[in-house]
């Protein structure tokens, strides 16, 4: 009887300790999470503040909430509304993402599944390009596109991606493909499918998680790309949101911070929405070692 | 007609490793041919060369009367069942079955009818709207079989299709596949089968003929009975049969053969079969043909272990320092096997003598 009571006491003590440990862990996680997220929370809060209130304190809750920043920010100081710049961003992103998905899949399929002359050297070049800083290629690329007469158009932003110019994505898809068993593709070949049919009907569906990651990465990087549009686009009517944000800082003498912050919130919104909507595939795609055999 | 001929077939890999050494084989129309051999003997490589999934380095593959070396797999009139089923994971069973016919551009009505027919034969009708991940191993195997069957190919290729299944399911699938083969034959459909396995039970029970391979060479091609009774060489003798054949170094001296210090007369039957008298010989006797006797000419051995298997007992004994196995009836064991020293007599009519230098059976 005494033993049982002792055991009961031990069990209760263990349960209490485990509860305390869990509570401490969660509190710590919440605090760190809050600190990390605070700038974003502040950004959203500050976009509803008046200009004078923004720098008055570090709190994020506006005293007199106003949508003024959104209304006036949307108008911009140019003849175009912010909607126009969103549309431009969309016009850049959509062909770029589609081009990337198609071209990188084709290139990765070739590298992962076929033997052809100079394959090793070519794949080595892809890896070398991966390690090359982007800035190094800016000037030759600029001169090339200038000579082709593509300046102030979306072509310099679309074309490199449509030709599997993003070595990182090719590499990522090659790695994913290498982890997939080849049996299904062989079965498709025995079923009479040619290489392209095998790619479309068998490989692409199995590649979907990685492909979704590629599209998401490309979407977010293009949405955030500042330098590319800055170099190649000179007409304001072609500016994407990344340039338009900077424009609103340049053209106003006294910065209307609430307008800038409001537009910043709108700018990051699509990337956040897309990321959370496709989060499952995104994580699956970058962490997956393929499917089980 | 879907006769398959392999003529001087060779496979050499990029690093100059020769996997298949110019093999020749003729498989008749409607024949069930089993390739069997240990891991790495190139049985799967040979099958894949027939399928067109592996490049042919030399020689040729003829299916029917067409040389198919340069044809892609889809145009060779073959269907293949893979070891891990290779079902398309994103397609339902129906889609898996239909894929080949869709690629061939068949009309929908014809495809639907073919799916119904195959699903009925293989009893997979309730599974048609499931994804491969929702199937058990046996069900997935039947779908893989269906995918092969639906194409009505000239030649079926099986690459160790049952090795991922448990023993019970494997036994039932074995029967199902042989039944199916017989059924196709009875219906007058072309049903040549090349079946790769490392499991000799599968080989012995399923094949019309068996092709035993080792290190890229064909060691013997024969019916299961002939392989068992008349192995052409030491490798086949040791590979086919369970428990393994006892292979014991021996010397032939005049009218007797000796193992260590013990000798037995060769006898007129064995003498008549000998095509040579090798200086260094190996005698082979199956455990079932090494009986436990009370008297008469026999080898004396020390009993090391007895495994009771129900109606029979596996006796492990030391014969002049070599381990031999004898399979005896439980009753014989009770009367004669309960002592430390036992007397084992090989059945001389079924005894094999091999030349130790080249492994050839000289007593066929």
Automatic annotation (TrEMBL), chain A:
Keywords: Cell membrane, Membrane, Transmembrane, Transmembrane helix, Transport. It is found in: Cell membrane. Residues 86-278 form the ABC transmembrane type-1 domain. GO terms for cellular component: plasma membrane. Its main location: membrane. It is a multi-pass membrane protein. The keyword Membrane applies. Gene3D superfamilies: MetI-like. The chain crosses the membrane at residues 23-45, 85-109, 121-145, 157-177, 198-221, 260-278. GO terms for biological process: transmembrane transport. It comes from the Bacteria. SUPFAM superfamilies: MetI-like. Belongs to the binding-protein-dependent transport system permease family. This is Carbohydrate ABC transporter permease. It comes from Ensifer oleiphilus. The lineage of its organism: Bacteria, Pseudomonadati, Pseudomonadota, Alphaproteobacteria, Hyphomicrobiales.
TrEMBL record, chain B:
The keyword Transport applies. Gene3D superfamilies: 2.40.50.100, Nucleic acid-binding proteins, P-loop containing nucleotide triphosphate hydrolases. Keywords: ATP-binding, Nucleotide-binding, Transport. One of its GO terms (molecular function) is ATP binding. Residues 4-240 form the ABC transporter domain. GO terms for cellular component: ATP-binding cassette (ABC) transporter complex, substrate-binding subunit-containing; maltose transport complex. It is found in: Cell inner membrane. The keyword ATP-binding applies. It holds the Pfam family ABC_tran. It comes from the Bacteria. It is a peripheral membrane protein. InterPro entries: AAA+_ATPase, ABC_transporter-like_ATP-bd, ABC_transporter-like_CS, ABC_transpr_MalK-like, ABC_transpr_MalK/UgpC-like, Mo/tungstate-bd_C_term_dom, NA-bd_OB-fold, P-loop_NTPase. Signal peptide: none annotated. Belongs to the ABC transporter superfamily. This is sn-glycerol-3-phosphate ABC transporter ATP-binding protein UgpC. It comes from Ensifer oleiphilus. The lineage of its organism: Bacteria, Pseudomonadati, Pseudomonadota, Alphaproteobacteria, Hyphomicrobiales.
């Amino acid at each position: 009887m005494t033993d049982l009571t002792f055991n009961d006491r031990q069990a209760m003590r263990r349960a209490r300790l485990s509860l305390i440990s869990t509570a401490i862990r969660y509190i710590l996680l919440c605090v760190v999470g809050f600190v990390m997220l605070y700038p974003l929370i502040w950004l959203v809060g500050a976009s509803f503040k008046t200009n004078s209130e923004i720098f008055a304190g570090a709190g994020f809750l506006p005293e007199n909430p106003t949508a003024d920043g959104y209304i006036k920010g949307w108008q911009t100081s140019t003849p175009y509304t912010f909607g126009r710049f969103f549309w431009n961003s969309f016009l850049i992103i959509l062909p770029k993402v589609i081009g990337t998905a198609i071209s990188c899949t084709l290139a990765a399929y070739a590298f992962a599944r076929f033997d052809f002359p100079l394959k090793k050297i070519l794949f080595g070049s892809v890896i070398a390009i991966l390690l090359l800083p982007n800035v190094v290629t800016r000037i030759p690329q600029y001169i090339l596109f200038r000579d082709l007469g593509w300046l102030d158009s979306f072509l310099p932003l679309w074309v490199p991606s449509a030709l599997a110019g993003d070595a990182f994505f090719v590499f990522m898809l090659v790695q994913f493909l290498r982890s997939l068993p080849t049996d299904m593709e062989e079965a498709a070949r025995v079923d009479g499918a040619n290489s392209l049919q095998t790619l479309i009907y068998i490989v692409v569906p199995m590649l979907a998680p990685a492909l979704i990651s590629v599209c998401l990465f490309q979407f977010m990087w293009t949405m955030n790309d500042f330098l590319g549009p800055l170099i190649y686009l000179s007409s304001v009517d072609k500016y994407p949101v990344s340039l338009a944000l900077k424009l609103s800082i340049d053209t106003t003498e006294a910065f209307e911070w609430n307008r800038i912050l409001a537009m910043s919130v709108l700018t990051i919104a699509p990337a956040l929405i897309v990321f959370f909507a496709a989060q499952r595939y995104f994580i699956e795609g970058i962490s997956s070692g393929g499917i089980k055999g | 007609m879907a006769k398959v001929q392999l003529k001087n077939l060779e496979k050499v890999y990029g690093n100059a490793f020769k996997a298949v050494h110019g093999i020749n084989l003729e498989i008749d129309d409607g024949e069930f041919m089993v390739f069997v051999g240990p891991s790495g003997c190139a049985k799967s490589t040979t099958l894949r060369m027939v399928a067109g999934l592996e490049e042919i380095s030399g020689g040729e593959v003829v299916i029917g009367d067409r040389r198919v070396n340069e044809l892609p797999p889809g145009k060779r009139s073959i269907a293949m069942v893979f070891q891990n089923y290779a079902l398309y994971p994103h397609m339902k069973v129906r889609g898996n079955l239909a894929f080949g016919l869709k690629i061939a551009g068949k009309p929908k009505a014809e495809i639907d009818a073919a799916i119904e027919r195959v699903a009925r034969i293989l009893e997979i009708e309730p599974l048609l709207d499931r994804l491969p991940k929702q199937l058990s191993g046996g069900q997935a195997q039947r779908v893989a079989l269906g995918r092969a069957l639906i194409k009505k190919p000239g030649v079926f290729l099986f690459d160790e299709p049952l090795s991922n299944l448990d023993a019970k399911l494997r036994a039932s699938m074995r029967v199902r596949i042989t039944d199916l083969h017989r059924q196709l034959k009875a219906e007058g459909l072309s049903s040549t089968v090349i079946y790769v396995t490392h499991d000799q039970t599968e080989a012995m029970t399923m094949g019309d003929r068996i092709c035993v391979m080792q290190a890229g060479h064909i060691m013997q091609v024969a019916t299961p009975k002939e392989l068992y009774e008349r192995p052409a060489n030491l490798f086949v003798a040791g590979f086919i049969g369970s428990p393994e054949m006892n292979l014991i170094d021996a010397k032939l001296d005049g009218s007797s053969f000796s193992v260590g210090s013990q000798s037995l007369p060769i006898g007129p039957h064995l003498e008549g079969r000998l095509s040579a008298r090798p200086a260094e010989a190996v005698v082979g006797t199956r455990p079932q043909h090494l009986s436990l006797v009370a008297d008469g000419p026999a080898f004396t051995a020390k009993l090391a272990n007895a495994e009771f298997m129900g109606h029979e007992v596996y006796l492990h004994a030391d014969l002049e320092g070599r381990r031999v196995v004898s399979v005896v009836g439980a009753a014989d064991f009770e009367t004669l096997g309960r002592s430390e020293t036992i007397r084992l007599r090989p059945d001389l009519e079924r005894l094999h003598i091999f030349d130790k230098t080249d492994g050839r059976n000289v007593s066929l």
